[in-house]
Design brief:
The protein folds into two domains: about 80 residues; about 230 residues, TIM Barrel, CATH 3.20.20. It contains twelve helices and 19 strands. The longest helix is centred in the middle third of the chain and has 18 residues. It starts with a helix and ends with a helix. About 5% of the residues have low confidence. The structure holds magnesium ion. Magnesium ion binds next to β10.
């Protein structure tokens, strides 16, 4: 009996650890876009320490791509009418071989600073954080549409601002109940997949994904973060998504899971130098935090952080931030801000 047990425990160990390494290891890129001016997409990497010996490109649009000896992926010809291309990459490493699919996006993303806060809802009649609020933000040509993600009791992801909807605490309600809820504009409460799939039909407006802190536990916030990153990977949505959160540990976790993800911190209690040291892409602070610490604008620039500011609905504050050349301005009044920036 004892020897059988030893055989069962010892023999598969090598196989199990191999399988574990394969499961944990994944392919990712340092960039997911190209343009007529920028044919280099980025470096292909695998998580963990395994060295890539060889990469092959497959999938529908494989013929449009090439890979260099040092694993840099680039596009060989650009058709400006095409929004995105589909490929699979197979990386042979010392730990084995793995394959993943990607959407590589023609970078026609708009750069006009305007981030529609919870989509463009206030002047359009759409419910905030609805797919139609996203569609309005896209139609009016915003640089980004911001939205908030919560996790249900049974770990499904939904888009909503508050912790509760129609008296139901999202974290304590199951997905089936939440999916049946109607927003004021008649739409169902969107799942993350509903919302992202709508956003991925275009390549002009970015999706600014806020991961909400958990009112229950830090573990739940981290679990939500893993779910979000899994969903972005499954949808092949990397090119469209930038991340924000008030939860500092959530931000660090995003960067651990996706080292090239663009992450900005919302709470306003870290200096730009602190954020830069932790490899953030930017800060995304309430305007009062920058009014209180005006030197942070230069400090952010010196540290190569982007500056985003919320939630700027007041014209005088908009004018100040335009003058300061903030990279992004998050607002419930995207129409007004767009008009100001066109002047
Ligand atoms: Mg938000």
């Amino acid at each position: 009996m004892k020897s059988i047990l030893i055989a069962i425990t010892l023999l598969p160990m090598a196989l199990l650890s191999d399988a574990f390494a394969q499961q944990k290891s994944k392919i990712y890129l340092s960039g997911y876009t190209y343009s007529t001016k920028q044919k280099t997409i980025g470096e292909v990497k695998v998580s963990g320490n395994s060295k890539i010996n060889n990469i092959t490109i497959g999938g529908a649009d494989a013929a449009s791509f090439k890979i260099s000896k040092n694993n840099i992926l680039s596009v060989s010809k650009v058709n400006s009418d095409v929004q995105s291309l589909e490929i699979t990459l197979t990386a042979k490493t010392s730990a084995g071989s793995q394959t993943a699919g990607f959407k590589i996006v023609n970078d026609q993303f708009i750069h006009n600073k305007v981030i529609a806060h919870r989509g463009a809802w206030k002047n359009t009649g759409a419910s905030e954080n609805s797919v139609s609020a996203l569609q309005h933000a896209i139609d009016m040509g915003c640089e980004g549409a911001e939205f908030d993600v919560h996790m249900s009791a049974d770990s499904a992801l939904f888009i909503h601002h508050d912790d509760a909807i129609q008296g139901k605490d999202i974290e304590k309600t199951d997905a089936q109940t939440l999916a049946a809820l109607k927003l004021a504009n008649g739409e169902n409460l969107p799942t993350l997949a509903d919302y992202m799939q709508a956003g991925m039909k275009q390549n002009k407006t970015k999706l600014i994904l806020e991961i909400k802190p958990s009112a229950i536990s830090k573990e739940r916030a981290i679990a939500l973060t893993h779910k979000v990153m899994d969903a972005v990977r499954t949808l092949k949505a990397e090119a469209w998504v930038d991340y924000i959160s008030f939860d500092y540990e959530v931000c660090l976790e995003i960067m651990k899971l996706a080292p090239y993800a663009k992450v900005a911190y919302l709470k306003g209690d870290k200096t730009p130098a602190e954020l830069a040291a932790a490899h953030f892409y930017g800060l995304d602070y309430h305007y009062s935090a920058l009014q209180k610490n005006p030197a942070w604008i230069k400090e952010a620039r010196d540290n190569k952080l982007t500056i985003n500011v919320w939630t700027v609905n007041d014209e005088a504050v908009m004018d100040w931030l335009i003058k300061e050349n903030a990279d992004f301005i998050t607002t419930n009044e995207p129409e007004l801000l767009l008009k100001k920036l066109k002047k």
